[in-house]
Amino acid sequence: MSISRREFLSGAVAGAAFCAAPEMVRAMASSCPFRVAVINDEISQDFDHACSVAAKDFGLGWIELRGMWNKNITALDDAQIADAKRILAKYNLKVTDIASPLFKVDWPGAPLSKQSERRDTFHADENFKAQDALLEKCIELAKAFGTDRIRCFDFWRLEDVKPYRAAINDKLRQAAQRAAKDKLVLVLENEMSCNTATGEEAAATLAAVTESNFMLNWDPGNAATFPNSMPYPNGYDLLPKNRIGHCHAKSVVRKPDGKWEWAPVGKGVVDWAGQLKAMAKDGYRYAVSLETHWRGAGTPEASTRVSMAGLKDALKQAGTGC
Prior knowledge:
Blueprint: H1 5-19, H2 22-29, E1 35-38, H3 47-57, E2 62-65, E3 67-68, E4 71-72, H4 78-90, E5 94-102, H5 131-145, E6 149-152, H6 162-180, E7 185-189, H7 199-208, E8 214-218, H8 220-223, H9 231-237, E9 244-249, E10 251-254, E11 260-263, H10 272-281, E12 287-290, H11 300-317
Parallel strand pairs: 1-12, 2-5, 5-6, 6-7, 7-8, 8-9, 9-12
Antiparallel strand pairs: 3-4, 10-11
Helix pairs in contact: 1-11, 10-11
């Protein structure tokens, strides 16, 4: 990978220094325009440990829920939901959103997508017919965990989505209308394996699905996996700023052969300092949630610590007050 040992060690040292003073970080966070967070299972499947790291080591007041105890969030039973709520209260953490796998399935009647293999490590094995029930489950979870946001996708990426795009938009519209009945927001993640992947595609989807509670989970790292995509500033400039409702922080490096690999935040092609500065200026006030995906430090937790240090450095460079 393109991250040098010296760069990794400097990031690790910065991460250790950052983690040494959570009280200071929490004090700084009071002036931060963003809800700085981390996806819990990027640290550990042990939910108590993940929350401890987020609150005590990273000094965060927010966390994003995706999977715990080797279960997707949507597969938790009532006892596990109660246990998770107890742990959140123990560490005084609020939930940014339910990071569900909603609509991460094949679109019926379309040619089989190359992405339809069971590649989703978060166990999104629901088929299309189960999506309405999955949405209802997500609504229940949002209420249980005190968040107004549910993450969704727009189906495994098709070679040619045009014949199906209007129907996909209708499905997203219907889901947003259902969520609105409970005053909840659907945040569509631009995901390289799905039909909305880049800033350009996200702008088009938002223009078609105009419900006010249908917003974007902006992920510049995902967009950067496309060789001709420059998520910031090019892709970001196309987005309606009042429709961005969540943000994932990650980065990638592009290799000479055209392939890419995940990179820690602060490295790679995503200009996170510039992106965060622009978002603060444009009035974005929701979550910036670390989803590093990079595993160059050896374990999910160690890698997330390095990326969190990189994210905090980018926030500082951006002059956000975080």
